[in-house]
Amino acid sequence: MLQEQQREELRRKKLKKRKEELRRRRRRKQRAKELFCLCICVAMLVLIVALVRRGISSKKQDVSEVVAASESASTEQQADAAEPKVSATGEIAQVQSQALPNYYEKKYMVGSPAHYSMEEIQTRLKNLADRYPEFQTIYDHMDQYPEALLNNLCCNPNMLDFALGYQENYDTTSGTLEASELDGIPLFIQWDKRWGYDAYGNDVIGLSGCGPTCLSMIVIGLTKNQEATPDKLADYATEHGYYEQNSGTKWSFMDEVAAVYGVQGYYIYLSKDNMQEELSQGHPLVCAMRSGDFTSQGHFIVIAGMEGDKFLVHDPNSIERSQQLWDYDTLQYQISAIWAFKVAQ
User: Fold this and answer.
1) Which of 1, 21, 93, 255 could covalently link to 305 via disulfide, CB atoms 3.0 to 4.6 Å apart?
2) 203, 330: one domain
3) pLDDT tens across 125-161, in order?
4) Residue limits of the Peptidase C39-like domain (predicted)?
């Protein structure tokens, strides 16, 4: 009986010892897991810190590159003002006038063309006024401006000076052409204060006069006729039925009115080869544009020349888009019609 009790006691001790050993093993495994997780967390933290530092360094480099590019672009623009641009074929490209009025200065970021609701216009003007106090007058008196003007101002805040003068200068013209605007195919902006307030159709030239402004660039560029300003051509379009209410300038205006000023305008089929051929002969182009980079509805632009394999656009509604070079693949799907022009024989 005593031996059995001793054996039972020994068995219990062994069982207890085994359980304690199992507990120790479990604790060691648990500590190993915790240590492993801690190592993983530390490694992830080190990686995140390294990526953040790399991102900050990259951003600093990007800023430096942007500043350098801006300074380079400024230098190139100054050089361009002194020397004519030469194409790859050796022909002097038709270039815009560099002597643009002060109110053409690019002060604000320009968005893509869009047609906004009045609620969206109000929100966007409020944001502009909060950021730039000079927009407060427009925002406070929105009801005194045409919706089309407010919409265009939201897309292109650089129209601010034109918008501020709208009420006082409505249906007036002022100023004359500058000598530099007779050199090559000039860039005329439809909201230029010299003619932008002149009434045209339902609005003013500054809002709906892209057609007369484009043809003015063509006629003055080819003939140097200083009487063919956008306001004069807009008046002719109105008087002779080339403006269609709620639609805009008729396509027939391009070739028929050009002939009145001694310029032959003719429709050409859209192709890169055709465009290059006409431009190589000094024949500028006018394009009717669909919705896209230049308009949300309909628009006319001038193609004044080429630089390398790209086209030099004179957009009467945008200085910014006129200072870019455009490739054919970008333009072709936005062009609905195209005319070439030359001095009539």
Assistant:
1) 93
2) yes
3) 999 999 999 999 999 999 999 999 999 999 999 999 9
4) 184-317
